[in-house]
Amino acid sequence: MKEVGTIELKTGLAEMLKGGVIMDVVTPEQARVAEDAGAVAVMALERVPADIRAQGGVARMSPPELVSAIKESVSIPVMAKCRIGHFVEAQILESLGVDFIDESEVLTPADEENHIWKSSFKTPFVCGATSLAEALRRIGEGAALMRTKGEAGTGNVIEAVRHMRMINRGIAELQSLDQGSLMSRAKKMGAPFTLVQYVAEKGKLPVPNFAAGGIATPADAALMMQLGAESVFVGSGIFKSGDPLKRATAIVKATTHFKDPAILAEVSKNLGEAMVGINISEIPEKELLAGRGW
Amino acid sequence: MIGVLAIQGGFAAHINVLRRLGVPHREVRLPADLAGLQGLIIPGGESTTMLKLLQAFDMKQPLQEFAASGRPILGTCAGAILMAERVTHPEQESLGWIPVTIERNAYGSQRESFQTTQACEAWEMDAFPALFIRAPRFREPRSEVEVLTRLDDHITGVRYKHFTAITYHPELTEDDRFHQAWLTHQVHGAETEPVEQVTT
After folding, report:
1. Which of A253, A283, B117, B172 is 20 to 30 A from B134 in CA distance terms?
2. Which residues form the active site (chain B) (predicted)?
């Protein structure tokens, strides 16, 4: 008997992506550069977050022909983003055979109340979170992989750091509680009780947890890994830099050897210009992406 | 002491199994980490990424020397791809230890990934759970390669000298029998002696 689309198969693929770098790409050529640099997967997009931010307007799922062309061009897994709550975009991405769907705050949300019911798909989903409670709500809906939201398209890692620390702190707090306090804590968090129980007992999320949003340098990637991320997503940071292949290769090396400062120093040399970056305080509040979704 | 290649991929899941079995283990990222190991596990993940990092950090030669020393090596999924002599879909280089061809992503993309059970007569194991995730498939083994497991007419597990390679993931389940059997038959060698002696 063969079973497909089980949560074990979904989180299993996330396990295989650990210790790796997932790179945003907008063309098949960029996808091949990412693969050559050692990416474990690519995220097929119409525009990287920095351009979405700059150009404004409604950001939607990538055109199917672009997703297919990128899928044809590489042998590594291909991910693609759909809007929060837009389950039809997700159905289309599944029919195209993408390996992971990112229900992403980087695109304009389609539903301000509901996220996608992810358990009904065979394709695994990754979702962003800014806190433990938010992560557990997404896992409750069937997400097989979590990532920090960070603040995409800024080249500024501060929000990703904040979100990773929030999740770590939330886990440590649950572990310190006695069993009798968990129900009331679950109520206060607005998170599924059984998942709160799981985290309190095991001291970790039930799915892998990666970092995303504002990672622009090898040191940023290693910082997120040392804070407990199990892999990193790099969006605008690579193809908005002076020498994408070199920078991408360096970030891949830094993610594997994240605890070795001598290697981090070596791979950080002569990378050319990093993306310019934006201070979060200079972004009008209504243009912040991390507040999308709940 | 068993090493788990931790350059990228599913190394944490293998380490969890070894921990449950009470086997001392170590993550292997650089050549020095291979010293003193009795066996090595190469996990699943992305074989292209692993190859590039093995190359970049001068790990290929030390791994070839480790293999030549006759110490047992187990590869799962991407690990099996690295160990096979010839890789197709697309063609890529490998460490070339097992005289067999392996086809990457032979069952399709993640949508087609599946879980089922496998049985291994050589190691006297009946149905154990196996996850096939964007799995490869063995083809055209030379006659000296022993087939360990099959799925219908596909070869899913092989053994050749001190090399064992499977296209699926027993480490993603709670059933540790496959690793136990590998330790018993390949690492320790003597089928009647307990695994604990491996670890001293």
Report:
1. A253
2. 77, 169, 171
The answer to whether A268 touches A144, Cβ cutoff 8 Å, is no
Tens of pLDDT, residues A81-93: 999 999 999 999 9
Residues 192-251 of A with CB under 8 A from B: 230, 249
By C-alpha distance, which of A145, A44, A35 is closest to B47? A35
- B residues 129-188 near A, CB within 8 Å? 131, 133-134, 169, 172-173
- A277 reaches B (C-beta below 8 A): no
Is the previous residue joined to B129 through a cis bond, with omega within 30 degrees of 0? no
User: Which residues face B139 on adjacent strands?
Assistant: B101
Question: What is the pTM assigned to this prediction?
Answer: 0.95
Domain ranges of chain B: 2-188
> pLDDT value at position B193?
39
A58 burial type by CB count under 10 A (0-12 exposed, 13-18 middle, 19+ buried): exposed
Q: Which CATH number fits domain B2-188: 3.40.50.2300, 3.40.50.880, 2.40.50.140, 3.30.1050.10?
A: 3.40.50.880
